[in-house]
Here is the input.
Amino acid sequence: MNKRDSIAPQPILLRDYVVPAFLLDRVDLTFELDETSTRVSSRLVLHRNPDHPVSDADLVLDGHELMLESVLLDGEPMSTDRYDVDDESLTIKGLGESAILEITTRIEPQKNTSLMGLYKSNGNFFTQCEAEGFRKITYYLDRPDVMTRFTTTIIADRSKYPVLLSNGNRVGEGQYDRNRHWVKWVDPFKKPSYLFALVAGKLSCLQDSFTTRSGRKVALEIYVEPQDLEKCHHAMESVKRSMKWDEDVYGLEYDLDSYMIVAVSDFNMGAMENKGLNIFNTKYVLARPETATDADYMGVEAVIAHEYFHNWTGNRVTCRDWFQLSLKEGLTVFRDQEFTADMTSRAVKRIDDVRTLRTAQFAEDASPMAHPVRPDSYIEINNFYTVTIYEKGAEVVRMYHTLLGAEGYRKGIDLYFKRHDGQAVTCDDFAAAMGDANGFDFTQFKRWYSQAGTPVVKVVSQFDAANQTYTLDISQTCPPTPGQPEKLPFHIPIALGLLDAAGAEIPLQLAGEASLQGTTRVLQLTEASQRFVFTGISAQPTPSLLRGFSAPVKLDYPWTRQELAFLMAHDSDSFCRWEASHTLIREVLLELIAAARASETLSLPGELVDAMRRALLDEAADPALIALMFTLPAETYLADQVDEIHPDAIRTAREYLRVALAKALRSEFKHTYARFCGATQAYRYAAVDIAKRALKNVCLGYLTSLDEPAFIELAQTQFQQANNMTDSQAALAALVELPQGATALADFANRWQDDPLVMNKWFTLQAMDKRADALDRVRALQQHPAFQITNPNKVYALLATFCSSNLAGFHRADGAGYAFAAEQILVLDKLNPQVASRLARSFNRWKKLEPTRRAQAKTALEKLAAHADLSRDVFEIISKNLA
Ligand code: B3K
Ligand code: ZN
Here is the structure.
């Protein structure tokens, strides 16, 4: 046994869940903020939990990196022999039925680079407590099923920290001593510690208000650093739209007098839904046309909605334990997806979400990190804020919606809130509310929570002209995942339609049904294989399967290329139209990859060119949909489609297809670019304009890949004249790998050097560089004054982009990419384990690499694993990769 094994972090198991031994009646916190150390005093009013199996259990409070100053029990100082303190906890023995504990600790937020607990960013104080950051602030029952009322008093220097914020309502303020002032906050709602927040600093505030449908006026406040105040209007409009939508669609109103959002530039993730005081990464608050792209605007709107929606799905009803994380995250993502669909284009939103799911979540489900939507175990919970918990979890909620219909779904949601408002509950409770409200049995459906892996649904069709029937034999399998060699059948909703030879929808009737029942049907696949027979079908139809992507599965159906081209042109389901183009392109790319590996000559199939030409010239179609059809699948997605990854073959094939399409459709791209080039003069954030910009910029990308001076000039002109970041960034992306790229990059950096969010784009573009020396560029960029390794956005923009998205760059044949990643992971792990752990996931595909690279990746992983002092975060990723 080496040293690592003897002290290896142990997994926490769902089956070990026990209710807390003590519950809290209330907590009063006082913070004395200071430059060198912060004093936190807490007063806990506790009583024993009658449901706990041990009647005289010790009180174990979580605490990490705290300096304990004093403990008082019922007003009396406790002698040190009555409690034990270690690295992780404060244990108090022999308590009676109830107790009042007063605990004072000291912490050093100015030294906190993990960005968990209380920390400083640009001179201001912020907190991040989810999942287990509160224990870095004070000793506490830091688990989501301990909910209580909080009051928070903040004391700080008035000139340095004029703004002092916490959860709930501001109930008092005043002068504390010569230089310091105080503010007191009371949160009337019970909450777990992970929803606690504190902010102190020099911040400017954009104010507005929203009147709820019951007539209460809510103050809306967005706090940012003074120079950013002009960039908050889109965020404010997004808040109001979210509040209105949640009232209209879910009947849910906001419940406090004020709703505050604070933007911070050093933040590990997107944003945090702390009760009444959401803290956001600046990336999801600040937007102006010159600095933010259409995608950024949409991101702001979606993340604002997401955090706002958490007020009910997460805060009012929270999770019993962290295994239930998807209870709040999957549900809230589904809610924000539907909100965005209603605000923008439903079809485009669905396609975007499916692309994310397939590129990131399917990959995770096929990796050593695969886990169910409700995991059974974890080593570090921060590693489980994953695409599986979020995006696959949202697909699970979407399937309830598909199976129950909008009305039945809403009945289930209403019952869920009626039963569980103010409680910490489980995914089973959610399923029970959905089932009970509708008399629907979700027993089998719940396997979506417990079984990992992406199911494969195979469809075999047969047309019988004599009997006028069309039979679908549908079967399902699910590959093994770590710890789950065998899977039971899932309950899978499969939405489908049939098209006749003219492309019209055929009304559908299943054998045994008395009448025709619409043109889109939702079949329920519950067995390993099942037969569905449609009657009254007079000629061979073309099936349109998995409409709207009705389940998170891989579909296996042998469409011919003609059928795919036909669906691209005719399917009434926009998702399936796009899906047909995607399937066609994927098939062609897989052939090209195989040819590239065999060093054969590559060629472009005529069917693809014809189908793509027709799509491009279809002036009736939504330009956004066409833009998506022409967006080639990511290299990483292609890597997941092959048995053995040869990164250079994937890159060669994808680049070949890009240029070959550009050559074949040169005049059509030119025409389309011209058609939309002048179409959007003054920037508007509106779906129609976004669609035009998207297609125009896709055309520009293809045209510049032809390396013709006229098109390069076109990109340069767009780069110089753009009045918005969408066009500017697209032009820069088109130029970046050309000889003209260096000047454009320099101009861009010169103009935006003081805007960190814009500089992130500049780093990302270069991290994606497809030239052979990408790694050297990345190394050099780490020395750029705008790069800071302590800022997560910068690490994600440069290092994580390179390691996770630049397939051939990171997976260099000589292994230098792996050595680089390992070196950066070790540096980051000392500063911020969550960020280090994200970078470590770049190795998740290593087992599928061709043998030379596989051996090199393994060496890098083993070297990492040999470090005895890895954080739990990185240890978990590395050890699971090597398992
Ligand atoms: N709930 C937070 C994520 C917290 C991540 C902790 N490592 C943001 C969100 O999902 O809305
Ligand atoms: Zn969330």
About this structure: The longest helix spans residues 387-420.
